[in-house]
Amino acid sequence: MSTNRWLLNLALKLQAQVPGQDGVSNEPGKKVRGMGGLETNITMEIAQLLLSLLHAWGMDPDLDRVCESKLGLLRPMVPVSFGVLSKGGYMSLLLPTWQAKFDERDRDKAPLEHELPPEMVRLERLTQLFTARTHWELSTTITSNHLLAIIALANTLMSMNNATFVPEQERNRKLHRQSTRTALNWASKAEEENEDLFTAQQAQIKQGWSLLATLHCVLLPDKVVQAGSKTFKRPQVEMMARRWQHHCLEVREAAQALLLAELGRLGPKGRKALVDSWAQYLPNFTSDTQAVSQGNVPATHQSQTAANGSTPSHQVDSVQQQQQQQQQHHMEEDDEEEEGVEEFCIRKPSSAAEMKRKQTTAVVLLGVIGAEFGQDITDAGTKRRTSEDLRRKSSVVEGFGIGNNNLARLTSIALTQLLLLPPSQRLPAHTSLRRAAIDLIGRGFTVWEPYLDVSRVLLGLLELCCEADKLVPSMTYGLPLTPAADSCRTARHALTLIATARPAAFITTMAREVARYNTLQQNAQTLNVNMANTILHKAKPEILRGVELLIDKMQNEMADLLVEVVDIVLHCVDPGHLKTRPLGEVFPAVCRFNQVSHCPSSRRIGVGAKNGQIALYELRSNKCQTSTGMFGLGNSQTKCIKSYSTAPIADVSRLNPMRLARLIWINNRTVSLMLADGSETRFNV
């Protein structure tokens, strides 16, 4: 659809405003003198026109008033006809039959309509009828593109400062900017009141855009039904799935919100019917790993399990070889959409290109359903369940549960293959399909984990994040990302989701990989391996970022794995820094735990584990010893030679690893016990 092209261009122009993303650009040639002597921005005028035409007037009278008074939208005087434009340049314009049949007795229901001429009243009612009901009964393609466009634009304007089309508010914004630039260090009471008033206006504007997006994303189907419609054309879930990782962030976020809202409205039975319709197109990577590694499209379950007239896999491969130069490198984002029906009856693909498109759609769609409505592995064996756990369990789609997990297994394998397959002509390194797989692995990791090689997945994600600081310096610019930067951003987000969802799995897996790295490093010269080119070496900053995040957010889980955490930290930090600086300065987060101690003079680090284990790290020789001989060299044993009674520690401190007691050695004979409340007790030993 070319709808996405002009939507992308408009979103980029809206973002290309002055620093701070204010509502008006300072670029030369972008402003014209409008009515009332006020300079206006052409891009904002186009956005005002489009949003005024796209808004579903008449659905929510209160929101309509907000759109006119606060946002500056213009209510159309006649019904608007919409159409779609294909890639080939053909347009289909759907013209409704406007029959103005109204009961004159209804005039009493509108107190202000008695002041209008009868023709104006009938025209206004006709407009409300069409925008509130008839327009949404025309076509699923029209509904999908319409909602995608207005939600993306509304979210874009909501993220900007003072994005309103009301001239008076725009004048106030300019005056506020000028006064801010020339303000002195002190401010009068009147200026403070003006600042508070301006801040309140900004909040109202942002709330208005938020309400506009919510109406079209969440509330619209119910509003249309309340208006008397019985044939509402729902958004196409397959269209939203194909745009799950669209290259335009605004379109991407709108498609994700629409798809999740539509899946929620379908209910358990509707989601099951949707899964049954698309599961036949899920690529079977388990039996076609060799073919996939060579770049061929794997066979679907439909072609393997039933002779139902579909295109055999070997014919699909031969046709694809003939059309190799014509196929897209990634999931089609601007293709012509098919009309879907509520029973989710999907016609069989008529070409290899269409089969490929259905396969990619099936992977993303089933990945979204599994991530959002699959059964969490932590639910198994859990005795105490919250209401949210029970709600999620009741909505689990068949095939994504713990007992019946066939679809969860196959979907997780497909997503993993898309992440780990090396770049090729058919599947380049940075495509929307690969980004979608990365994103869905992170979103549904607790569902996919039993069927994943966690080490390979984490290393694959870390490889994409190796140059994160260069590719994605800041996410506040709002500018379009390069494909490599977009993949890096998505992989970083997936790593964060995995680490916070399963912190123990993340830490233990990374500690295991660090141990393998250390073993390989000892034999690097013999094996002729350049350790600087390994993923675990290049991704050190990203690993540290994940560990620091877990220490900030999940202290209890990290306290249970403190030895493994220190193993990872000492691998990632620069050893040269620890020669001249204490660990608390090199990586302050880990020293929040009182069980970690660093002696700069002897260059040793001691870590006390929750199970009583003590780990001593010799920084000079880069070795670790423990009291039980689990790590590295050494088999020393610790034993208790004397004990002392202390005051009891409150539960609030005992249960918080950051508020535990701390031992401070005054000299070799005196130790001080410091509690979180500041109390101190000294002992002579």
TrEMBL record:
InterPro entries per the UniProt record, alphabetical: WDR72-like
Compositional bias (Low complexity): 314-328
Bias (Acidic residues): 333-342
Polar residues bias (residue ranges): 291-313
Extent of the signal sequence: 1-16
Protein name, as recorded: WD repeat-containing protein 7
A single GO cellular-component term on record: cytoplasm
